[in-house]
């Protein structure tokens, strides 16, 4: 019941924070967010799951009971953790607390609503990563969108209304597509061979093979293909995979910094997490058939996102596009279907969550002081805010894949895995193409840092530019420590991830 | 063991109406509505409790229900389900009326008329004879006309009342003419007897019966605010005082559907009717599509919130009509899809009433009627704005809220019945509805605005809170609602 307790507590915490006066909301929000953080860390220490949740592995902290029947299927409250979901749950709680602290400076109106929404989003994210019943999972999945819609729309930049609507429409249409795909597969294809919508039961029924019937005039094979594509496109919008990424720069640039941190750090991972759970676990044979296409999309995202980042002048846009690039690696790792590929991709979700959170936060701290994010507007910031700039540079090196940082571990695992993949045709070629992305990443990050951070200080401003306050810098430092810790000791998560993805792979070493 | 009369929930509503009128005749000049509100809320609550008690205790859930008064009235799962819905809406609207009509004259009449209408609605849900149905329908309609025109010095209110009355009178005439034709064709007014006549074949009276069925459908469409008798709705909802709009668009609409569900399913069984050429499921398919498309597209072009809600309520009538449109002779899915339609009406009773009550609150504050006038209310009155946001997203069918579940079950039922094309149209409409509902959300939260808001209308806030709790609790509590509704609906087909 620990999972339910934490989710329930976080909902109540959101309500409480919503009701307290604006003046104290920042501290109340941060204090209350410590409870789910401590709870998830405790779950980490007590984690005793093994195997994959969807293929009959042993779940940690499992709860399961019936809710109601939907068209002959029993809907259940079914939660539990395996080695894939636990790291993501820890990431969610960790980043939420840091994002809340990082909001103390920039958020200066309607604070209680802001922090209430952050906690409301955290509760739904925790539910989404732990739910193992399709119906409950879908409710949490969708409920995550609402707070983000308001966070962008109310506290965002000048074009916030446009960005909020675009985010909402894109992700909602995507969810609808995914929903139709899954429902066609289960209600239409599996029919009576399952009697609940629990993800393990669906996955195992599909794995048993042969019991998918034709539906709406589609032969079983075609039905699986159509369902796979519908779900893949639905999740790809969320990831986002180029060319479905166009909502992301708008949302990121307009969103307030803490919302960007959550969006890049956790919400993008919803897409890859769901892909891993649905597309690659439930329909691996279809994924293998489409391997060349998916690998090409992954490599394309890496290169295209990096090139777009190279062309930006806005620091936040640079980081936003580089997320597209980094998430391309995850896709490549997943489709490799090798131990290191899939586990590396899962590890990269955590690593990228931390590093992109760090980068967005650092850009936010710089913006709080300089009131600009344009590369050409400033130079020599290292002179005025040495600690922030130091952490920013370290984070950027993490992004480039400097050894002993989490980004290196994730990308290295992925490259090893995808290089040896027997599922992707000409796997070394795709791997090499994706590796070239790192060169571009290094290019645009070094260029941007050289222009803004180093050299003589200059900024056309009539206000004082000085060091950032402690509560702005502290979350950055904590994040940097976490990035280094995971880089030095990837086994903190990597062992349990390997254990959880072992039943899924069979595509080479 | 004490046994209560099966019609207790209906009686309680009627007795409450009489209590209100008695109080009013003793203190006719009082402008303090607190006692009237108290009587009305307590009475409706008692009725709700009784209906809920009967439902959970299983009374009337037997296949045939309990027939009374020479079979003219029947109490079964469906009638109790609808009575609970009417009582719940009456509670919300009574609470809101305390603040909305504070200091106004003739409040006794207001509460009395509202409770009489609620009594009539409850009786409609129980009507087992076309004569009872007609009398009950008039018991709803006549107070409703007066309620719409209640602000008699307000031009909009009086005009809306007149318009509503003229169309209402016309459709009542059509309905009663239809009833007489059915009587001519079948020789009875009791629904089971009419059904028996349909079963044994109508011979050359099929034409008369067909015209009669068509005209009865017209009466249902009028109450439910569905095409082709929908055009009173935007005017009446817009002109009427907002709590009355809430009452009409939630409870009165549900009463129309209660009438349609029972009369068509029990009285005109689809098998024999369709084979005689009276395929009313096809009729309702056409009406459902026309109603939802018209309602949603018209709602998308409105400038005023109340009018947008009025058209959206027509759109929702279109969704609920799927409950009749997706029926087919002898199909096992009939109970499921009609139960889903009933559950949608139940959820709708909370979210739509809540949305109209927010409009009442805005009118009470003196905020204007247009979308722009709501700008920035979220920053100034966060609780009310959060409630309104939840109602609107629920109406749009955004997943985590009750409105999503009921729509999902409804559409799933229609798919099971094989009506793919109808569901596709409904989903497109539902997505469109997100556009115009989110315009209000945008105004509330994203835009900046200045208002001079004074006063804390406690009762209106309480009503809003109750509606919000209802809408949110229907998320975990949707299981029992849908199960009761589907069980009740399935019993009708047995």
Profile the largest sheet of chain A. 2 strands, antiparallel
* Major protein interface: A-B, 28 and 28 residues
Give the proportion of residues in helices of chain A: over 70%
N- to C-terminal separation of chain A?
38 Å
List the helices and strands and how they pair.
The complex is a heterodimer of chains A (509) and B (494).
Chain A: H1 2-19, H2 22-46, E1 60-70, E2 73-81, H3 85-102, H4 111-130, H5 134-143, H6 145-155, H7 160-190, H8 199-208, H9 220-238, H10 247-254, H11 257-282, H12 284-289, H13 291-310, H14 315-336, H15 339-370, E3 378-379, H16 386-400, H17 406-419, H18 427-453, E4 458-459, H19 470-488, H20 491-501
Helix pairs in contact in A: 1-2, 1-4, 2-3, 2-4, 3-4, 3-11, 3-15, 3-19, 4-5, 4-6, 4-11, 6-7, 7-9, 7-10, 8-11, 9-11, 10-14, 11-14, 11-15, 13-14, 13-18, 14-15, 14-17, 14-18, 15-16, 15-17, 15-19, 15-20, 16-18, 16-19, 17-19
Chain B: H1 8-26, H2 34-57, E1 66-68, E2 73-75, H3 77-100, H4 107-126, H5 130-148, H6 155-186, H7 191-199, H8 206-224, H9 232-239, H10 242-267, H11 270-275, H12 280-300, H13 305-325, H14 334-365, H15 377-380, H16 382-396, H17 402-416, H18 420-445, H19 458-473, H20 478-493
Helix pairs in contact in B: 1-2, 1-4, 2-3, 2-4, 3-4, 3-10, 3-14, 3-19, 4-5, 4-10, 5-6, 5-10, 6-8, 6-9, 8-10, 9-10, 9-13, 10-13, 10-14, 12-13, 12-18, 13-14, 13-17, 13-18, 14-16, 14-17, 14-19, 14-20, 16-18, 16-19, 17-18
């Amino acid at each position: 019941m620990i999972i339910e307790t934490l989710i329930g507590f976080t909902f109540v915490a959101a309500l409480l924070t919503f009701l307290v006066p604006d003046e104290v909301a920042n501290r109340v929000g941060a204090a209350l967010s410590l409870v789910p953080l401590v709870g998830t860390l405790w779950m980490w220490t007590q984690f005793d799951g093994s195997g994959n949740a969807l293929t009959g592995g042993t779940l940690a902290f499992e709860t399961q009971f019936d809710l109601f029947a939907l068209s002959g299927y029993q809907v259940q409250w079914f939660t539990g953790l395996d080695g894939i979901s636990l790291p993501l749950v820890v990431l969610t709680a960790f980043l939420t607390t840091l994002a809340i602290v990082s909001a103390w400076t920039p958020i200066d109106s309607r604070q209680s609503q802001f922090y209430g929404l952050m906690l409301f989003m955290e509760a739904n994210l925790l539910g989404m990563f732990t739910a193992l019943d399709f119906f409950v999972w879908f409710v949490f999945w969708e409920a995550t969108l609402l707070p983000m819609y308001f966070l962008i729309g109310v506290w965002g930049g000048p074009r916030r209304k446009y960005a909020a609507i675009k985010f909402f429409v894109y992700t909602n249409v995507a969810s609808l597509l995914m929903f139709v795909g899954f429902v066609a597969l289960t209600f239409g294809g599996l029919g009576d061979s399952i009697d609940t919508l629990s993800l393990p039961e669906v996955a195992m029924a599909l794995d048993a093979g042969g019991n998918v019937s034709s539906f709406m005039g589609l032969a079983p094979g075609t039905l699986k293909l159509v369902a796979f594509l519908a779900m893949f496109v639905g999740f790809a919008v969320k990831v986002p995979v180029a060319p479905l990424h166009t909502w992301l720069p708008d949302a990121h640039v307009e969103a307030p910094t803490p919302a960007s941190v959550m969006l890049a750090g956790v919400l993008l991972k919803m897409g890859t997490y769901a892909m891993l759970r649905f597309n690659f676990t439930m329909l691996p044979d279809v994924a293998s058939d489409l391997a060349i296409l998916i690998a090409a999309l992954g490599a394309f995202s890496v290169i295209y996102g990096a090139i777009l980042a190279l062309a930006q002048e806005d620091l936040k846009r640079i980081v936003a596009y580089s997320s597209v690039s980094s998430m391309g690696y995850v896709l490549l790792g997943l489709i490799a279907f090798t131990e290191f590929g899939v586990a590396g991709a899962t590890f990269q979700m955590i690593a990228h969550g931390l590093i992109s959170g760090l980068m967005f936060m650092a850009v936010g701290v710089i913006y709080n002081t300089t009131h600009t994010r344009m590369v050409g507007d400033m130079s020599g910031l290292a002179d005025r805010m040495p600690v922030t700039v130091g952490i920013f540079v370290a984070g950027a090196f993490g992004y480039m894949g400097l050894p002993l940082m989490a980004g290196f571990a994730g990308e290295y695992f992925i490259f090893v895995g995808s290089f040896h993949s027997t599922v992707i045709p000409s796997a070394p070629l795709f791997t090499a193409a994706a590796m070239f992305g790192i060169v571009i990443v290094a290019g645009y990050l070094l260029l941007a840092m050289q222009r803004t951070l180093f050299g003589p200080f200059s900024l056309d401003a009539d206000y004082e530019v000085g060091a950032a306050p402690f509560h702005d810098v502290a979350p950055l430092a904590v994040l940097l420590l976490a990035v280094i810790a995971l880089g030095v000791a990837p086994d903190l998560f990597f062992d349990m991830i390997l254990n959880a993805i072992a039943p899924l792979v069979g595509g080479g070493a | 063991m004490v046994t209560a009369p099966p019609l207790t929930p209906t009686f309680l509503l009627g007795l409450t109406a009489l209590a209100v009128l008695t109080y009013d005749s003793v203190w006719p000049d009082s402008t303090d509505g607190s006692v009237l509100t108290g009587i009305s809320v307590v009475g409706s609550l008692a009725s709700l409790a009784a209906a809920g008690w009967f439902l959970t205790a299983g009374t009337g859930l037997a296949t045939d229900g309990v027939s009374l008064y020479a079979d003219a009235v029947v109490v079964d799962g469906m009638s109790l389900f609808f009575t609970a819905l009417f009582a719940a809406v009456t509670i919300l609207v009574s609470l809101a009326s305390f603040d909305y009509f504070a200091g106004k004259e003739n409040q006794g009449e207001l509460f009395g008329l509202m409770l009489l209408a609620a009594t009539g609605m409850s009786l409609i849900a129980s009507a087992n004879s076309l004569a009872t149905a007609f009398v009950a329908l008039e018991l709803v309609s006549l107070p409703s006309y007066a309620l719409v025109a209640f602000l008699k010095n307000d031009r909009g209110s009086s005009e809306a009342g007149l318009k509503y009355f003229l169309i209402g009178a016309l459709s009542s005439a059509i309905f009663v003419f239809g009833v007489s034709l059915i009587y001519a064709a079948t020789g009875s007014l009791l629904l089971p007897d009419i059904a028996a006549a349909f079963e044994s074949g109508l011979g050359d009276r099929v034409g008369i019966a067909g015209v009669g069925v068509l005209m009865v459908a017209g009466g249902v469409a009028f109450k439910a605010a569905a095409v082709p008798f929908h055009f009173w709705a935007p005017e009446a909802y817009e002109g009427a005082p907002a709590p009355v709009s809430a009452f009409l668009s939630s409870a009165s609409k549900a009463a129309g559907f209660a009438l349609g569900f029972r009369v068509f399913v029990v009285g005109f069984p689809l098998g024999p009717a369709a084979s005689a050429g009276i395929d009313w499921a096809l009729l309702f398919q056409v009406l459902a599509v026309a109603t939802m498309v018209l309602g949603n597209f018209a709602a998308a072009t409105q400038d005023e919130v109340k009018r947008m809600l009025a058209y959206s309520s027509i759109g929702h009538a279109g969704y609920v009509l799927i409950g009749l449109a997706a029926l087919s002779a002898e199909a096992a899915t009939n109970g499921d899809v009609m139960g889903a339609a009933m559950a949608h009406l139940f959820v709708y009773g909370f979210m739509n009433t809540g949305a109209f009550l927010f409009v009442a609150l805005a009118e009470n504050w003196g905020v204007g009627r247009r979308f722009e006038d709501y700008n920035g209310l979220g920053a100034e009155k966060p609780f009310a704005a959060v409630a309104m946001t939840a109602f609107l997203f629920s109406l749009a069918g955004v997943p985590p809220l009750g409105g999503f579940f009921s729509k999902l079950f409804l559409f799933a039922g229609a798919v099971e019945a094989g009506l793919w094309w109808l569901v596709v149209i409904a989903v497109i409409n539902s997505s469109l509805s997100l556009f115009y509902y989110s315009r209000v959300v945008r105004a509330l939260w994203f835009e900046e605005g200045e208002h001079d808001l004074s006063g804390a209308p406690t009762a209106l806030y309480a009503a809003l809170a109750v509606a919000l709790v209802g809408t949110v609790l229907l998320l975990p509590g949707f299981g029992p609602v849908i199960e009761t509704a589907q069980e009740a609906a399935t019993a009708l087909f047995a």
